[in-house]
Design goal:
The structure holds two protein chains of two kinds.
Chain A: H1 13-21, H2 27-58, H3 73-97, H4 101-127, H5 136-166, H6 178-203
Chain B: H1 6-11, H2 32-61, H3 71-106, H4 114-133, H5 164-192, H6 205-237, H7 250-261, H8 263-284, H9 291-305, H10 320-332, H11 334-348, H12 357-380, H13 382-388, H14 392-422, H15 428-446, H16 449-455, H17 469-499
Helix pairs in contact in B: 2-3, 2-4, 2-17, 3-4, 3-5, 3-8, 3-14, 4-5, 5-6, 6-7, 6-8, 6-9, 8-11, 8-12, 8-14, 9-11, 12-14, 12-15, 14-15, 14-16, 15-17
Classes of the chains: A mainly alpha, B mainly alpha.
Chain lengths: 205, 559
Amino acid sequence: MQPVNSSVDSANPILEVVHEASHHEHSDNRLFGFIVFLLSESVIFLSFFAAYIVYKTTSLNWLPVGVTGLEIKEPTINTIILVSSSFTIYIAEKFLHKKQLWGFRAFWLLTIAMGSYFLYGQAVEWSGLAFGFGDGVFGGSFYLLTGFHGLHVFTGVLLQLIMLVRSFFPNEYDKGLYGIEATSLFWHFVDVIWIALFTLIYVWQ
Amino acid sequence: MANISIDAIADLPPQSEQPEDWRRFFGFSTDHKVIGIQYIVTSFIFFLIGGVLAMVIRGELITPESDLVDRAVYNSMFTMHGTIMLFLWTFPVLLGISNYLVPLMIGARDMAFPRLNAIAFWMVPVFGIILMASFFVPGGSAQSGWWAYPPVSLQNPTGNIVNGQFLWLLAVAISGVASIMGAINFVTTIFRMRTTGMTWFRMPVFVWTVLAAQIIQLFGLPALTAGAVMLLSDLTFGTSFFDPAKGGDPVLFQHFFWFYSHPAVYVIILPVFGIFSEIFPVYARKPLFGYKVVAVSSLIITGLSAVVWVHHMFASGTPSWMRMLFMATTMLISVPTGIKVFAWVATIWGGKIKLTTAMLFSLGALVMFVFAGITGIMLAAVPVDIHVNNTYFVVGHFHYVIYGATVLGIYAALYHWFPKMTGRMYSEGLGKLHFILTFIGTNACFFPMHPLGLQGMPRRVASYDPEFAFWNVIASLGGFLLGVSTIPFILNMVSSWVQGEKAPKNPWRAIGLEWLVSSPPSHENFEELPIVISEPYGYGKDEPLVSNPDKLEVAHATS
């Protein structure tokens, strides 16, 4: 137990002592740390992309027997929806900055809906494909890349749901918007990765 | 909360909410100093386990025949020895030393994310237990070497999904997650938690080297993680990323593996460079020669480390143009490294040298690092590498780096900061005995591997031609001596911690923020944060390090 400072004379001395006494994580640091995490995470995706490019350019039997290519129409619609959701989450953030909670909730919910639709679209696509995870390096690479990205979308939607629920508790965002900013940043990251992934897998066939 | 009274404050649990005695090291703590010591002690236990496996290896190799253990057991021994020594000893022990020192050295109260710090630490024993559990599953532990190259690592004679290789991959994946957590914490702490006046060029070199090392973790480790995920998928889900029979490419795994695992050696050696840079000025009583160049050269090493990995694959069907390119980049690393070596020599040159145990270990480590550097340049040259590839020459080279320089450097750090960490002085007599045994043991064990390699003795074999016997006997005796050398160290550390002479706050008259506070420092490190006004190596100069030294002594100093 630290002795309580005898010069306790400022406006709220006790809170200061308590604050001083515990090790805090500052909101700015958390956002900085989160950006560092995303930079690190992007290297995993880059590694998978590199593997995909190596396989595609060197493999003798690239596509599994009976498979001629991937259907691109539905994934394109999915892509448009996912990329658009980066704009809706941006608008939601703007509403929160202006302390307009219902505007925030509406656009936030719209983002959740769009992310969920993307996951639904991917599930439908997967169920209709004629090849599996074990069908050569193409099958493995396809499911690994889209699955790992899908896992990120799923995580993003979960984070968004948590933030939405949080908005119904009073004074939740008065002390900073770290959770919102981090979730939003994560969502933009997931979108950018998808654009690269879509180009690599669907456009470059 | 606003209505809380002074009396209520007095009733609050202690700040750390932990016992103040030795028991605090056995619980979940968010204090970077407790976590640092938890890392150091945990990793030392694994160091001893890895050492016992090394004794089995050297015991097997003391005679040409495969007569001590079964060949499969021998494969397990060198696989687990390498894995334990890297992932459960050198990485965690250096994380421990860094955890303890970095916040103190930059004038912070703790790491940026104390809880993340604690979680990252507790993942170390978890993955250690997973790794150890692999000895007890059908088929025993992984046998494919610490690099886990396919197709060997994809073999599964037992048919069980939970086999040694599976647990190995799982453990490495957990280790990777923990390391990335740690790296995020260190980078954020160093970027954002420096105290007033602690500019980049007032940071101790140790902090620079930790930053450089952790940047490698952030951008290298995910590549290994990607490779490990793909290998795990091949092993369990029937994919064929690395199975050539089904169109996979086993050499691609080598790229993933070495893209991280070569820079990993810099993750290990860079903080040791930092340790040298802290220790030489203190015991030579001189400023660090070329401080700024030494500091920045760490980042140059980090940058270059990303473009050298193919030198491990000169014999893997790598095209000639690529061999030439990577030979050149590998040799370039010797420039910033050489700058550091010359700076240390210039620091010691003409100094009033005091040969404490920490200084002896640093000097010994530096000598062995220079030797390792020379053999490293030889290995970077394609013709030499092709000749000695997969021989004991390579084993000798990296053990000079990892044991000669790194382990001795770690010992130097543990002795130098022991009074700060424990509040007690260590026994110089036992320390010097430890140094003599370690220095002789290291050279006796690892030097013979060079002539053995040049003569053509392959690595990873349990039996060999009798013409290699002479040097192998010497290497084994040296290895056993290294085992013995840990005894005076353990005795010294335990007895000094329990009943050593009480340490003042600055027993070495060193310059650095960590030496301005009590030994051991209080939970909050500094009562009032220091305001730094000069470079960290002002030996022989009159300028003070901080502008408020009288306010730094903590409220409940123990010394």
